[in-house]
Write a structure and sequence with these properties.
By secondary structure, the chain is α/β, with parallel strands linked by helices. The protein has two domains: 167 residues, 3-Layer(aba) Sandwich (Rossmann fold), CATH 3.40.50.720; 176 residues, Dihydrodipicolinate Reductase, domain 2 (2-Layer Sandwich). Helices cover 28% and strands 22% of the residues. It has a six-stranded parallel sheet, sandwiched between helices. It has a six-stranded mixed sheet with strand order 10-7-11-14-13-12. The model has no long low-confidence stretch (mean pLDDT 97). Bound molecules: NADP nicotinamide-adenine-dinucleotide phosphate. The site of NADP nicotinamide-adenine-dinucleotide phosphate (NAP) has 28 residues, from helix 1 and helix 12. InterPro entries: ASADH-related, Asp_semi-ald_DH_pep-lack, NAD(P)-bd_dom_sf, Semialdehyde_DH_NAD-bd, Semialdhyde_DH_dimer_dom. GO terms for molecular function: aspartate-semialdehyde dehydrogenase activity; NAD binding; NADP binding; protein dimerization activity. It comes from Ruminococcus flavefaciens.
Length: 359
């Protein structure tokens, strides 16, 4: 496979650090640029991020002495050094939109973890096992932006990465109503227990903007390309409640679902067991071999025990049973900073690379 030079925009942040560790020994992608705000630019990665390093594994040795570039003021220079960039920055939504478009217009494709462009109609929001065909909208986006190579592709919010994969293979039975309560880890807010001690022995029943994302993003992921845009699906009807819980990593969802045509429990289990997507067919380096794992034990999946399944890229399910108000209920879990953030971004980039979008 061809090798690609890549940059990480927002390298000093929580998601940026995760990108750095995931890309350390990547077989296709070589990190050539690390960039962050003007506050960090000019410092080495170790100087800028060493004291706020939040990963369980050390900072990649080859990146420690790399000098951070200025993500907002060095765009042309960065675009000239890499084949594409990952982006995960904490800025205002309008600023992120403008920043990502500026990179795309400088002919540097952007694979983004930010939410700013998720509902831009010609920006694909991709879970590679579910809607890989949405990357075909990039042709229309390039026409709008007037670019030859440059484009923006985004991954979805971490909250939906647990229940949308489990619901996806069941769509053939007609998903009617979905209720999902999510129990979200503190790393989703860029925090750990040292930086957010108030979360020890606590639960906060509100995560700003999360319920809207959790209800709307699945409809774009299940949408269809029509002309120059992705048109959202109109079903199922989704309602959510998103809670912050005292867990370091791993978002859990308790899901209730009704169907147009109710399947049997065995049919659901078989569809989960057999579910393979394009990443598995193409054997992309970060793809889990088995995307959806089902646990028979009543007390699984558990965040602490099961979030790292298949490098944190698989989705765990359990407790599938009939319900008195909905047809079925079940529980699912995914690692929010791996599958739900940087790992999902790397897998999307692998899909784009395999399909020639960085050439
Ligand atoms: N944490 C998660 O699990 C998660 C999951 C999915 C998506 N996301 C999204 O990913 C993005 C980053 O999240 P995070 O948790 O990694 O945030 P974070 O830890 O606060 O890191 C923010 C990064 O943005 C950079 N930055 C801030 N202002 C900038 C500017 N004006 N110009 C250029 N760079 C700037 C920071 O650089 P300095 O260090 O120089 O300030 C830092 O590298 C957010 O949009 C978030 O919503 C996060």
């Amino acid at each position: 496979m061809k090798q690609y030079n890549v940059g990480i925009i927002g390298a000093t942040g929580m998601v940026g650090q995760r990108f750095a560790t995931l890309l350390e020994n990547h077989p296709w992608f070589n990190v050539k640029v690390l960039a962050a705000s003007p506050r960090s630019a000019g410092q080495t990665y170790e100087q800028a991020a060493g004291k706020r390093w939040k990963m369980a594994v050390p900072m990649p040795a080859a990146m420690k002495d790399m000098v951070l570039m200025d993500a907002t003021n060095d765009i042309e220079k960065i675009a000239g050094m890499v084949d594409f960039c990952f982006c995960a920055v904490d800025m205002k939504k309008d600023e992120i939109k403008a920043l990502e478009e500026a990179y795309a217009k400088a002919e540097c494709p952007i694979v983004s973890n930010n939410s700013a462009h998720r509902f831009t109609p010609d920006v694909p929001m991709v879970v590679p096992e579910i809607n890989p065909e949405h990357i075909e909208i990039i042709k229309a986006q390039r026409e709008r932006l007037g670019t030859k190579r440059g484009f923006i592709a985004v991954k979805s919010n971490c909250s939906i990465q647990s229940y949308v994969p489990a619901l996806h293979p069941l769509r053939k039975f007609g998903l009617k109503n979905v209720l999902a309560c999510t129990y979200q880890a503190i790393s989703g807010a860029g925090k750990n227990f040292e930086t957010w001690p108030e979360m020890v022995d606590n639960l906060i029943p509100f995560i700003g903007g999360e319920e809207e994302k959790s209800e709307q993003e699945p409809l774009k992921v299940w949408g269809e390309i029509k002309g120059n845009e992705i048109v959202k699906a109109t079903a199922p009807n989704i309602t959510t409640q998103c809670l912050r819980v005292p867990v370091s990593d791993g978002h859990t969802a308790a899901v209730f679902v009704t169907f147009e045509n109710k399947p049997s429990k065995e049919e659901i289990l078989k569809l989960w067991a057999d579910f393979k997507g394009v990443p598995q067919e193409l054997q992309l380096p970060s793809a889990p071999k088995q995307f959806i794992h089902y646990f028979e034990e009543d007390n699984r999946p558990q965040a602490k025990l099961d979030r790292n399944l298949e490098g944190g890229m698989a989705v765990s399910t359990g407790r599938l049973r009939e319900d008195s108000q909905y047809d079925y209920k079940f529980v699912c879990l995914s690692h929010n900073t791996l599958r739900g953030a940087a790992g999902g971004g790397v897998l999307l980039a692998e899909l784009l690379a395999a399909k020639g979008y960085f050439d």
